[in-house]
Amino acid sequence: MTDKYAIWDIDETLISASIKDISTPFLTDPNVFYIQPIIYPSPVEIWIRKHFHECINSLKMKGYKFIIWSAGEETYVKAIISVLFKNVEITHLFTREHTTKYPYTDNGRTEYEYVKILKNIEQHIPGFKRENCRLIDDNPCHIKEGQEHLIITCPKFSRKDTECSYLRNLPDIIDAHFSLKSSTNLPVDFKPSVNNQAL
Ligand SMILES: [Mg+2]
Q1: How far is Cα 192 from Cα 2, in angstroms, rounded to an integer?
Q2: What is the distance between the alpha carbons of residues 29 and 109, in angstroms, rounded to a whole number?
Q3: ω into 41 cis (within 30 of 0)
């Protein structure tokens, strides 16, 4: 059987991160952890989206393999996944250096958007077939091609969304997405709408 991959974005998809306010105590919530990558002056507070472990375990049972692809810097991403995916096998880790950098102007300043293009990573994954992967990302603007393989995380996760049920439903959404795309009975212009059914 060909491997199926869930390719995870990190920020606002699985976690919400912010520089810790030094005037407040460290939290002891099981859904919160702290990292301090060398590139940051203060600890970073990380909130895990609810049902994360349930989602990962369900997808593992279904036989999915996991890839991380964040547009964050490698040091930051590694610090997060060393905790978040501590007991979960990841086949590949891709970060900002695997994105394509697009300049844009914001109030006269040149900024950059880091875009995920599948051809940037497929060469690194032996036997990879893009039809067997789903990118799970909160920002459709970060995917410039291959949108048919994209599942938009909806809503974006912030630490205020403590009751968000999205990840509980996501394994079924991913299964449905694969089923829809592989069906031969769909009209040519059919667009799966399962992304918005998990709210
Ligand atoms: Mg994101």
Answers
A1: 23
A2: 39
A3: no
- Please name the residue that has the structure tokens 């393989």: 149
Q: Which residues surround ligand 1, an ion (CB under 5 A)?
A: 9, 11-13, 138
- Interatomic CA distance for residues 18 and 63, integer angstroms: 33
Asked if the 5-15+49-185 domain carries CATH number 3.40.50.1100, the reply is no
pTM of the model: 0.86
Q: Which residues is 135 bridged to in the sheet?
A: 7, 150
pLDDT at 40 over 90: no
Position 1 scores a pLDDT of 63
CA distance readout (Å), 58 to 55, 170, 176: 5, 9, 14
153 CA → ligand 1 middle, Å: 9
Q: For tokens 């999915």, what's the residue?
A: 64
The set of residues, in sequence order, having a beta carbon less than 8 Å from that of 13 and lying 6+ positions away, is: 49, 136, 137, 138, 153, 156, 157
What is the Å distance from ligand 1's center to 92 Cα? 18
What separation in angstroms does the CA of 166 have from each of 132, 154, 182? 22, 7, 24
Domain segments of the chain as ranges: 5-15+49-185
pLDDT tens for each residue of 130-154: 999 999 999 888 887 788 899 998 8
Which amino acid is residue 13, in one-letter code?
Answer: T
